[in-house]
Design brief:
It is a single chain. The chain is mainly beta and 122 residues long. 0% of the residues lie in helices and 52% in strands. The chain contains no helices and eleven strands. The strands form two sheets. Strands 2, 4, 5, 6, 9, 10 and 11 form a seven-stranded mixed sheet that branches. Strand 5 and strand 6 form a beta hairpin. The protein is globular and about 40 Å long. The N and C termini lie far apart (38 Å).
Length: 122
């Protein structure tokens, strides 16, 4: 199983980026994005499962997670980006769903992508 994340880059505050994560090898019931800023712990951003999405409070209303099942790809559309969104973004997947309270926990995810850097300038 491999996850390939892409789409990161440099953008001005207020701009948009779309991250992509292609999974090869099998399909997954649950996908998520996490991020890690310099000197900080990895934090939950958003999760997707069939009929359900979940967002961190800091990105709700600005970010959208969605999946193209045919392409086995999960996306993170990021709008109204802020300087504090600067981080390395990681996609993660797991074969089965978990309960709501566990969806934001990194240890619940089986496979991880390599990370893609998002830098938001002021």
């Amino acid at each position: 199983v491999q996850l390939q994340a892409s789409g990161g880059g440099l953008v001005q505050a207020g701009g948009s980026l779309r991250l992509s994560c292609v999974a090869s090898g099998r399909t997954f019931s649950m996908s998520a994005w996490f991020r890690q800023a310099p000197g900080k712990e990895r934090e939950f951003v958003a999760a997707w499962s069939t009929g359900n999405t979940r967002y961190a409070a800091s990105v709700k209303g600005r970010f959208t997670i969605y999946r193209d099942i045919a392409k086995n790809t999960v996306y993170l559309q990021m709008n109204s980006l802020k300087v504090e969104d600067t981080a390395v973004y990681y996609c993660a997947v797991r074969p089965s769903r978990v309960i709501f309270s566990q969806q934001s926990l990194p240890e619940e995810y089986t496979y991880w992508g390599q990370g893609t850097l998002v830098t938001v300038s002021s």
